[in-house]
Amino acid sequence: MSETAVPQPVNANSAASSAPLLWKAILWRALVALAFGLLTVFWAEPGTMGLCVAFAAYLLALAGAEYLIVRTLAFPRRDNRRLVLLGATALLAMGGVAAAIFASVLYAAWFGAAALAVLGAAELYSALCKPADSGKSALRSDWIISGVLGLGTGVLLPFFIQAGPHGLLGVAGGGALMSGALWTLSALTLRHDGRKSKAQ
Question: Would you say 169 and 43 are in contact if contact means Cβ atoms under 8 Å apart?
Fold first, then answer.
């Protein structure tokens, strides 16, 4: 899904040095999403505590993976995408902590919905925003799809509160599986293109 193998910040040397790390950071995010998605498939009766713990762990792990991606991309300091994505990452982490503390189906649903929707919006912004001093991002097409998935999952979650923990995990897990598949393909594409460019 990725359009090119290398992120393109202003500093070309920084881009070259971060390229081998980018696909690994993206793969970590993919594995986090896939692990959570598979958990929701096979967990028949999670209960309220199970829902809250699963949401908390997922949001916190997702925040860590997203932070790693942002650091690896090495945005220029004046690039608003850096601030937007880091802000969304912070909200993911806070949503995960809040879901664990309140231990309620209602709060877990709303915290999870807000965190995922904000991340989706941040990714869409990063895909559509093109600063004058920066080239086209390697992750533009992936951000668009992932952003739509995140927004969609965030919007849908509150409507499934009455379905209980299993229903909420099903909705969140479905979005996570699609997101995980997307980012896995992105990571493998970046890795393949990086090796191909080295060979040339």
Answer: yes
